[in-house]
User: Fold these one by one.
Assistant:
Number 1:
Amino acid sequence: MKSAITISLVAQAQGGPFVFWDNLAAGCERAAALGFDAVEIFAPSADSIDRKSLHHLLDRHNLEVAAMGSGAGWLIHRWDLCQASEEIRQKSRKFIAQIIDLAGEFSSPAIIGSMQGRIEGGVSRQQALEWLREALNDLSARAANHGQPLLFEPLNRYETNAFNRLGDTAAFIHTLDTQNVKILADLFHMNIEETSIPDALRAAGKTIGHVHFADSNRQAVGYGHTAMEPVVEALRQLAYTGYLSAEILPQPDSEAAAKQTMKAYRRFVAQEPAN
Ligand code: LER
Ligand code: MN
């Protein structure tokens, strides 16, 4: 398992669960200095990223990109894949497609979390899932062209009524025409929605493609009350080799949250003595 830390470049995400903010160069510098393998980037749009300078930063700091989020489509524009308006669903698909291409250029997957939307406004669940199915079939083929999976993330009930639990998500993605959609297991959402985080991970098995590494209160692991040892043990049993990416609140501040995450990663995963 590899370590990653989040960098948000989205002004509208203020107060959200991202460790470093507004400055890719400074975020990459701190991530590398603290020993992270990778950064996960939350950008306002694909074309907001200066690709050449990001390649340069990653090379200089020997970092990978763990994943790129697409949630700014929702946060900034209020677009998502389940809206009644065909025009907005198409805009959502285009926005995500561009993030997939950007992520692909950095050998990383894109994430669909908030862009799954909410089933509302008189749209039936069956209809919404049909739209979601079409979009995921199409977008995951695009990700496959980059040799990447597409990550789909169940969210807690206060953020979506589409997919809240790993089991329902796994059942849904098995109905797709593709095996290239993988689940993003966010331990914060799972703490709210699952009966047992380790059991849910074990049941989802090989469909897990990425993990958001957060404690019960969405702070750095160790600052809440999730029993992390059995969670990491479940991932080990699945032979999970992907990222544990800290999508957490920058509390008490970014530096302390990042340091605590690395301490927890070393304790639970790398099993090095904490210092
Ligand atoms: C996105 O990864 C996520 O977990 C949502 O809660 C939006 O922040
Ligand atoms: Mn998440």
Number 2:
Amino acid sequence: MKEFKAQSKKLLDLVVNSIYVNREIFLRELISNASDALDKRRFMSLTDSSLDADFGIELKTDKAARTLTVSDNGVGMNEKDLEDNLGVIAASGTEAFKKEQGKTDEQLIGQFGVGFYSSFMVAEKVTVISRKVGETKAYKWESNGVDGYEISPADRAEIGTDIIVKLKPDGDGDNYSEYLGDYTLKTLVKKYSDYIRYPIRMLEEKKADNGGDASVYELTVLNSMTPVWKKKKSELGETELDEFYKHNFRDYRAPLHNISTRVEGAVDYTALMFVPSEPSYDYYTKDYKRGLSLYCNGVMVMEKCAELVPEYLGFVRGIVDTPDLALNISRETLQHDRRLVAIANGLEKKILAEFDKLLKNDREKYEKIFTQFGKAIKFGAYDNFGANKDKLKDLLLYRSDADKKLITFKEYAEKLDKDAPVLYACGETAEKISMLPQLEGARESGKDVLYFTDPVDEFIARMLENYDGHKFENIADGTKESKPSAEGHEKLLERIQNSLGKKAKVAATDKLKSYPVCLAAKGDVSLEMERIMQAMGGNGVKAERVLQVNLEHPVIANMETMTDDAFNDTVTVLYNEALIAEGYKTEPEFLTALNKLLSGARSAKQTKPTATAAKKSCHATSKKPTATDKTKSNGDEK
Ligand code: ADP
């Protein structure tokens, strides 16, 4: 019995004893090794045709013996190879190992990409029987992964290697027996090794055709061998990409769009990316794991490599295949890998360029994508202090009040006179915004307004400051608009202000038509921002509210002659009307004030139930108030 080298032993300890979450990768590692051995033999066969063979990998299970065997007819190993390759862990690895104390087991195992040793996560014993190319003798290497290993002569009729994994007993929630099941093995091969260039075969149990109990076995190939991303467009079946997407990313719906790219340069890579039909159910939660699957020459290295896509494009799924990264590179090391950063930058550019192309050439599709993932793109424009705002601003779509469809800032700005502002209105939904009183003025003067329905929209506008020199302007911003003359109405405005108190400043406006009042904000904090900040727990942030009054409106004109009581109730009702229009909750005093005003109106009817009164109450609701109406209501209030 030979002992493992000191550091190797330490690492093996970790492998055997850690509850490594991703145990199943042992099969990927063994298949990858087999594939490498086949590569070597195939390469030799180019110059020595006697080495040619029907290259392949085979999986065999023996339920009684609890063994899973991975066999290949690759280059094989002799006694010395077994000793050198399987007795130690690569020297460079051991160096790194010394430096990396203090890491968790999982980090360490991940870091070394333990390859062959990962089989000890599931095995109580591993036996390797191998015969090397050009040799007649075969050897057996055997180990329980703890005490050491033994090498002895063995028999093997053909060149190649068998790795016989004797599974640990089940128990304690561990189900090692699953690796004896056809279904699990098939699934694992599909998941990790589908694109291995050699056929991975397995004797699969099939029910006999005659319906009897006897089983028949059939040798089936489990992997598809050619990566779809390596196929030419002309070789791809119509739905092959869709099927690939559905299978790999567990989505029963076809993707909205696929993007493929092949780059040769400082780093070579091929990428195949998909925009799903809609965000996955957990997309906007912290549970969502973004990332593209990373492959190295057709072998999956990492399932969701987050470093490959920026957070705001986290909805994009797909794969990246590069020959330039080592198969056993760990997540930790990867994060700081310059090549990976280069790939990620290239992919981000590619995706944005593709979106831009769609925006120009397939608007319908882009709108679909934006409807599903616009929030994420907007977040990208705002995030990181707007670091990406310039590359994303032309990909944003907003509903236009005038056009009743989604348009870009650019399309909006094209309609503007020089120095005219980009007008926007904030609200929860397009429907609610379209009913905002403030829109009336803009509509009458033929100005378009963009609907900002996401909380982040106004923050983006503030960050951009202007689009092509056109400043962004909230139509509910009381600071910017021109003030109509309040001549002759100063007293009235003052009276409203006194009644309203500190709730809001009172100012005249000419942007309203059919509404008597609306709410606006002055200064840096808009109403929308105040709401967002408060939702985020920032209670200190307050918008400076302005109650804008339409002096032309009959309701306001009516107020000139009201008694204090009726006047105060009317101010309360009007202020609450403005709150409602902006989507706020009403004040507690609102209903009392409203009821008082309503009962006043009803008592008018009750005292004089005549034809004239009915006629007059009609007048009261019409737009033109008459002197009689005013006196009448005043009289009733008393
Ligand atoms: P890695 O594959 O990263 O080098 P492993 O621990 O998985 O590390 O394997 C160590 C070495 O053992 C391989 O480099 C290879 O030389 C040899 N080896 C493993 N499996 C096989 C196999 N099926 N056929 C031939 N050689 C193998």
